[in-house]
Amino acid sequence: MEARMTGRDGGADIGPIGNSPVVILVRPQMAENIGTTARAMANGGLFHMRIVAPRDGWPQERAWRAASGADRILDAAEVFETVDDAIADLHHVYATCPRPRHIVKPLLTARGGAIELREATSRGLKVGLMFGPERAGLDNEDMARADALIRYPLNPAFMSLNLAQAVMIMAYEWWLTEDNTPPRELMTNGTHVATKGELENFMGHLIRELDDCGFLRNEQKRPGMVRNMRHFFTRGEVTEQELRTLHGVVTELVNRRRVR
Amino acid sequence: MEARMTGRDGGADIGPIGNSPVVILVRPQMAENIGTTARAMANGGLFHMRIVAPRDGWPQERAWRAASGADRILDAAEVFETVDDAIADLHHVYATCPRPRHIVKPLLTARGGAIELREATSRGLKVGLMFGPERAGLDNEDMARADALIRYPLNPAFMSLNLAQAVMIMAYEWWLTEDNTPPRELMTNGTHVATKGELENFMGHLIRELDDCGFLRNEQKRPGMVRNMRHFFTRGEVTEQELRTLHGVVTELVNRRRVR
Predict the structure, then answer these.
(1) Considering the domain A22-176 in this protein, what is its CATH number?
(2) Best interface-test mutation with A: which of B71, B165, B169 has the largest number of A CBs within 10 A?
(3) Interface pTM, i.e. ipTM
(4) Angstrom distance (rounded) from CA B220 to CA B198
């Protein structure tokens, strides 16, 4: 049984905590941003928040109001006076850094960073992700304490990123490191993708009726027209249920014609 | 010369527009969210916004205030009464859909969707991405008009996603489809990674001084101690500049000892 995230008030949990990276907000300014950051963390399965020297003190009711239910993360957030205190028990710390810096440091993409954090975590190491204050970002002293910097590949002509957005991207990438969802699948919802036999059964029905009504009367064009319809009906997957509907459509159109 | 995003007021541009996907906000409720969405779009290089039946009408000053400089996207936003009107000139439309639906439809991840949108765009097709209203999301009629649904892999125990956050993830994935940043690199900032010769030169200096001061006097342990130091100095990349600093550190420590 994994530990799960539950709060002081015993509300619904928001998932298994595990050994996920600690999100360290360094000198954050707006309590709302701390709340929306908690929400983004919950979205991506990051449950541990540490706050270094929040400008307006802590706790702040406005943070909880902005968290949209990610209260448990705020309830459990730890406050520190300095970055050194906040990272003392961590083995690796990565710092997000939107702007280029003139320092010698490994520089990772968000994805590269998330993968390395996952690897370190699976070795049993405690890792942290530092985010700077809203306007200025992390300062040079903060960054000298980080093992590596993370810079997101984003539009260089518009890099202004909200704190919660910045955390969202790392939370999302963190979640993806253990996700195996196929990039494309067909939801078939109780029916199934038609077999070639089921499709051919429908094509036979359609072609018989089109022969019957005279649509395919030009003998020279007939093979090409039939082939083109086959191309259309094989372009995307069709379900058995949809074929039954199409059988009905053909039948009803024919009946209406016969009645007329 | 590519077309660039410039606004009515002729301010600074925020990048080349290109044939990027149209973001279609369907019945959005809060003008602030339209503004923060524009900001997220600019971050990821999505420049075309369409708004279907905004609850509070359009334009709304609050949207511009929340856009943090992504005004050009709001200035150029087009408003439509219906989804059909908003998508009439598009070739492919994908709908984001946080919750499972009982429909037969291709289902993509954010990454899978971004890659397909990029492929379609590079074939010259106009594509769109639909996002539903803040609380309810897209309805069944909206989704019946989409070629595919996109659902983000995120913490199923906490799926509550702000509109701008949802757009941010697609904008980020869109940007990544053309990004080639290496996942890890070393910023060396004017210096260079030390060659093995430069490193060995330093190791020689260090070992000579350690021999001199007696630290390596145990002949039996000496080879292992030297090897361990080599392991340490080869674990991460070291720059030529850092080696010069380390030479200085060794020299100064030795001088201090000699003075004493």
Answers:
(1) 3.40.1280.10
(2) B165
(3) 0.90
(4) 28
